[in-house]
Amino acid sequence: MVKRKQKSSEGHYQIIIMPTQKRVLDLDEKEGMEIEGVGVAHDKENGMNGKGLGGGGGKRVRGGGRKSYQDDDYDDGDEYQQGEEGDEQRRLMPQASPPNRKRSKARGGDSSSSHPEAASDSSSSHVVNSPLRDRHLNPKGTPAEAGIIHEVYVENFMCHRKLSVKLCRNVNFIHGQNGSGKSAILAAIQVCLGAGARRTHRARNLRDLVRKEAGADCPGARLRVTLLNGGADGYMPDLYGEYITVERLISLRPGGFNGYKLLDSNMKERSRSKKDLDAMLDQLNIQVENPVAVLDQEEAKKFLTGKEEDKYAFFVKATELERLDRAYASVQDNILEQQALQERAREGVGGAIENTKRLKMEWEQFRELDKLEMEAQELRAMYGWSCHREFMEQLDEEMKAQKYSKALEKRRVELATAEQSLDVTDDQEIELKKEMESLTEEASDAAESKTRLENEVRDASIPVKSKERERSLLARELAQEKKKRDSAVRRLEQARRQILESQGNVAEEERARTRKIAQTEADLARAKEQVEPLREEVAIHLRKYQEIEPALAQTKETLDGTMKQLVAVQQKLTAMQQESGEGRAALAVFGSKCKALYEAVQRATKANKFQGPVAGPVGMYVKVVRGKEKYAKIAELAIGSGALDRFIVTCHEDFQLLNKLRREIGCGPRDCPLYRIHPKSTKQRYDIPAPPPGVETVTSVLNVENAMAFNMLVDLAKIDTSALADSKEISEEALLSRENGRSFIKGGRIGKVYFLPKGDHWEAKGGNVMMVSNDRGMKQTVGVDRSAAIESAKHELKALQQELVRNQEEQKGVNDASYQHKKAWNDAKANYSKVSSRIKNMEEILGKLRDEAETSEEAPTIDTTEYENDIQEAETAVQDLKKKEAAVVQEIESLQPGLNELRKQLEEVDTRNSRILEDMEIVEAKLEDIVNHQTQRMEMVEKIRAKVQQLDDAVTKQEDNVAEIKGRVSEALAGARKMQFDYNRDIRMFELKKKNGGELPHGEELELEPSENDLEEIDIVDPGNDSKFYKTKLQNKLRKIEQEKQRRNMSESDPVVARDKYFRARKDLDSKMEQIHAIERNTKALTKDLKERRARWRDFRRHIAELTNLGFDEMLNKKGSAGEVEFDHEAGRLNLIVQKSNTDAHSQTKDVKALSGGERSFATLSLLLAIGESLETPFRVMDEFDVFLDPVARKIAMENLVRVAKEMDHRQFIFITPQDVSNLQTDQKLRIFKMKPPVRNDSVGGAQQQTLNFES
């Protein structure tokens, strides 16, 4: 810690606390430096330093034994580097300075610093009352606790026989005449704390320092320096305590001990190691080699008289700049060595690279072989799967070839039928005969009815046939009359043509009228010919329309009846389904969320989200066996709550998915709970033994359709152990047994017995019967097993639906026919009306034409009246015949319905008679078979029985074949799964090794042998070809592998050895390359760091020079003088400029030799105090600092020394002077020791010190 005085704006001086040189040389937080011959940057990322790279380090640089301390403001602690056995002292360098170091206030107020780092970075700013002060040895403001001298004891040393000096903690003055032994105390401190004899400037070796007057028997000298060892900075306080004593023995006897001892507070020896002494001095920051910390007479006398170079050397040594400069030079030498090492390493790594490439090529060849091995392993697995598939195909063929089994069943049915036919008794024969008699009587009755009806039909047909003959006669007469009419018409037309021809030029009007009359009569005749057919057509269509009306009504009635039956059957089916619990609508009875969860499960199942089967709710599969409905409620009571609304899965993944679906639809904790069942329990029900005779259990009352639901109820609800009974008495009579005063339940597995009417139950425990009443009401949510009735109703519903379709088609056909007949009738009526209207119009026109002809002036020459009368008579005859024919047709139609009815009855009787005859033939055949073919049936039975036996043997043989093939299938499946497991394991190992450089990752373990679960989890693979194909490919692949091995002619036959060789070579190469890269990184880091340190060192040197200059000038100002310290850092020179009077510029001198002795001494003292402010040693010693001072200057110097020393109460000052110090006042911080004058005598050796006592 250094202090810098700076003048404030008010004219007062401020003391600015600044880091000392050991704090200026901070490092970057990520790099560190060791001041040793190997000095390299610390690389945290690689965990390496330059020492591990080879390359010899030079000797370690030693300084003056200073110590750096660890601060809370630093991120990284100081690093210590242990030296070799012969080194005297360990050194350290601090780590990076902390950023944003705090500033505090000086005693005189705020301050500013001229330090070059203060303006650039807050991490190097200089602060007043910095917190670093409290982190240094013996912080200011508190009495010194560690490192200061408590007592000095000498024995047979220099002029002292025995001397003990107990020093004050702050300021100590030792004065006395020359020769009184003052400087011997300083020499004892130096020698005892590690300095050599030459450093004392009193002798060349330590033996010369032993007191000569002790005589030849003197064993040697003993020196002891006791130091305070308290506070946080004490050296191993647990071992040494509050005081630590360094004892130095200088033996004059051969073989005597010459060395150091470290003693604890109880003066018990703890160590004799020079290393421990160096560590203690380093810990306490004691620097006896530093001339500013310990200034003896010789150093003080020659300081000002030396050359400028000597002064500069004194300055850099005192401030430790010289030690740091030597350390940097050593680091630069090490950098050069590391660069040379790097070049040599790069030259020597070429062979390792080539060897690594060669070994890598060999190992990659083995990896290529590994790929071929993987392909061969895959072919093995596929060969196994193809064998399994072929065995499965054989098994499928055997299982499909059910001809023996089906034929056996058919033959057994035939055998049963044949055997039953043998059991026909006489009663059956009598019954058949009675049936034959009955059929005979019925056939006789039917024959009589047929004869009677045939006579009736014949009788009823006589008038119809008579009318038919009459109609035929009328039709012939009508045809003859039409011919007559046509002939009359032709004669009339001929006559009229003759009239027209004979008249010639008769008026055109008459001719036109005649032609028109003729045309009208012709049209009228044709129209009248159309009237009758149209009338008949109208009558026919009307009859057809009237005939189809009853059929239309009948089809509508039939359709309505079919619809009513269909609705009734649908209602009946719905009721039975609801009663039996079928349909999703019935799921709500098991729980409010069952339906929603069921639908969600169905959607997930369609999306193939489940890995295994899922069932639920359980109650959906539970039905009451028909006829046992009365036990339904207590059976459900025995099952218990929370079972019928469960859903069942087989694996953890499905369980998680179903839980997710439950959450999505908002299921509570008790809604639709889940149950996980073993996958083997999904297809086959548990083999539950039947209950005892006369005893009903839940399993016998309820029919559970789903195997998973059944097995779950057995596991969870114990339905196979719950018996059901009509009453307590009946249950006890059937199941309760008592022996030797103990009660137990018969039936083996029965554990609880439930009985009606309330659902109470009892059980036997510990030989006693325990009755449990049911306080809850019983309910029934499971449906009755009406599967047979429901199936029958479904068939009936289907038949009715088909019949409904037929009825609808039939009604549509009848409707279409009725519509067509009605439309034809209407069309015929319209045509008839149209023709009738035309006839009426033509008759009116013809009448008018005839009237005009009669009233005309000229009458025709030929009379056509006769012809016209003939036509009129013929037309009249035709109309009369048509009326008669119509009357006959009407009579025939009136007789036809009765005749048709008789014919229908005759047809029915004939059909019934045919059926009776067929039944009689069947019965007769049965009787004939019973009577005449019993022996043949016996032979047939034997033949069928032999055939059954033959088929039974064939079935047994087939079952043996199936069992054998199943065994082969199982073996093939196990083998295929084992080969698939090996392939999966090897491919997994291959991939892991490929990603991890040929080795399995750390912590990765692969099972070499599969467990049963591992094999079961392997899915069956469907190969693309048969086993022969894969076998051929596998053999070819193996031959190729052998050929590749022979072709490659590799030096190693073992891939593991090749891989290990390659990885060892690569690891060695990587290690060498890493060393080369580490050397390169560290060299770059060292170069950069050294450059930064050099810059900091120069800044620090300038800063120390400025502080020294300010302190020097300030100290001279106390005497009324002024001064300046000139530094030439490049030339290594230091010169003092002293101005005797600070008001007289002419009194300035640059040659200190021109000053008087007192002035030189005061200037020397001023410079030493200025430099000394940069030190943090716990104590400072100055010997004969005031030589040549005049009284005034000496007084000023003494006052300044005491003032400065008391201000630094955390340091110890020892001033040795031959001058009088009586003007100083002693107190707790200041103590004066006066040495007694030496005894003067004339004996050889001169003056000697004879006493140990001091004058106060």
From TrEMBL:
What Gene Ontology molecular-function terms does this entry list? ATP binding
Q: Where is the composition biased (Gly residues)?
A: 49-58
**GO BP term, example:** DNA recombination
Region of interest called Disordered, as start-end residue ranges on this chain: 36-142, 437-464
Instruction: Name where it mostly resides.
Output: nucleus
Q: Which residues form the RecF/RecN/SMC N-terminal domain?
A: 149-1235
Q: Which InterPro entries match?
A: P-loop_NTPase, RecF/RecN/SMC_N
The chain's coiled-coil residues are 790-968
GO CC annotation: chromosome; nucleus
Q: Where is the composition biased (Basic and acidic residues)?
A: 447-464
**Protein name (database record):** RecF/RecN/SMC N-terminal domain-containing protein
Q: Which family does it belong to?
A: Belongs to the SMC family. SMC6 subfamily.
Bias regions of kind Acidic residues — which residues?
Answer: 71-87
Q: Which UniProt keywords apply?
A: ATP-binding, Chromosome, Coiled coil, DNA damage, DNA recombination, DNA repair, Nucleotide-binding, Nucleus
Keyword match Cell cycle: no
Q: Does the keyword Coiled coil apply?
A: yes
Subcellular localization: Chromosome; Nucleus
Q: Where is the composition biased (Low complexity)?
A: 110-131
